[in-house]
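Hello,

Following up on my earlier ticket. Below are the two sequence lines again, exactly as submitted.
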Amino acid sequence: MTDLAELYQDIILDHSKQPRNFGELSEANRHADGYNPLCGDHIEVWIRIDDDHVGKVHFSGSACAICTASASMMTQALQGKSHEESGVLFEQMRQMLAGTGDGDIDQSGLGKLAALGGVRRYPMRVKCATLPWHTFKAALDENTGQPVTTEQ
Amino acid sequence: MGVVTTKPACLPLDVGRIRHDFPILSAQVHGHPLVYLDNAATSQKPSVVLDALHAYYTQSNSNINRGVHALGERATEAYAKARDVVQLFLNAQSVGEIVFTRGTTEAINLVAQAYGASHLKVGDRVLISQMEHHSNIVPWQMVCQQTGAGLDVIPVSDDGELMMGRFESQLTDRTKIVAIAHISNAIGTVNPVSKIIQAAHANGAVVLLDAAQSIPHMAIDVQSLDCDFLAFSGHKTYGPTGIGVLYGKAALLADMTPYQGGGAMIRSVGFDQTTYRDPPDRFEAGTPNIAGAIGLAAAIGYMNQVGLPRISAYEADLLDYALQRLESVGKLRLIGRASNRAASISFVIDGIHPHDIGTILDDEGVAIRAGHHCAQPLMSRFGIPATARASIAMYNTKHEVDALVQAIQRAIEVFGV
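Thanks for your patience. The regenerated structure is below:
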């Protein structure tokens, strides 16, 4: 598979064209805004958390296919996870997306999310894929005094 | 160098020979010949510029206006000559009207602070437009906050043109500064700057022209334009990064306080009193970008040799061709349809975000810009977060436009829109 074909796999295109859990979540009790100031991407993430478990995650916003697909797949992957499990997944994704080597990244347990790994070959696009995750983390940790940016 | 020097009316630009002068244009990207269409972000550099930088650092490198040694003299002379070249290029009245800066951004900040901060007061207005680059918005917001002056914004029409009727009513005797882009970096509109300058002067306002996007594409004569300030960047005009120019009318510069303090801008320093040198030195604190100025002079020499009228004519023809080819692509929508335009073409494709267009085009060796182009208010005006932008320079060809269109077709295929 070429780098480009790996980046724009069918599953990525599918999620970007028909994002899951898209739109405001009325029962949410956590929310954060995320911006990529260099490219203008903007997404919002809503979470419903009960008993330390992620009930539902929704997102909305205007972003590229990579960011949209990453956000859409994220909302599915996080559903039902505990606060701690969410943090672990966030860290695994961060390492996979921003990582440099192929061999030393443990992608087991990532499931479909591993499809986002193609972005590693495109350093300029890594922030597109990480933005939803950083935004989720900020909402989860209620670290929402400032909007999230990928400049951090 | 191999460029013809006869009058532009006689011979069209020989793009094959021009391309030969730019070493990077023979590069391969992802297995394809580089098609560089991101010239509004920065242009590529001809060998004469690269050679001038190399020659400076290998034969003349020294600080200026200080050492009495041979290298110091050479460097000082070369830096002074570079200023002369810029003066002639812009047809400024005197060399004292040419201030070297880091680029357009620093030049605009210099005027906002060294002129604006001391000339604006509560109730005064600064007039800019909706199509400005952030660098011609934020410095004015900052000085308005400092002084209590207010900011007015000339709106842009659906076609991407300044609404001149609105401009005329927004321009009042309270308007002290009008700061306007000569050509929009985002959508390529050429603004009617002569008309704006005349109207502003009739109302007693001074005019700063952001010429970052026009300098590489058209001959500019600051005296016939009668602008008060003009700013441009070396790197968008075939020169190095980190060097730019502020032109200011001598009388205005003489009335301005320094922008930064330090060495090279002083006449004498004491703890009780420091006196400043005359412009332009007053505005060039510290060791300047000597190599950058020399490289810029070489770039201007190159453009002069090709001839700006010839460059304009060639690029106008290429732009027409590109617009016609792009309009033939179904699903593609041009953003900005000004009747007078140059250099930059912005477009969107329903169902494909500009960043994804940019990545797929890059895979075909085609370099364009995707994003908000540091013009977020203009993007908001058109109700879009971003565009894809192809911007041309004198070395681009119709063949490259064809490659662009072909790569766009591939993006459409990949996304199945």
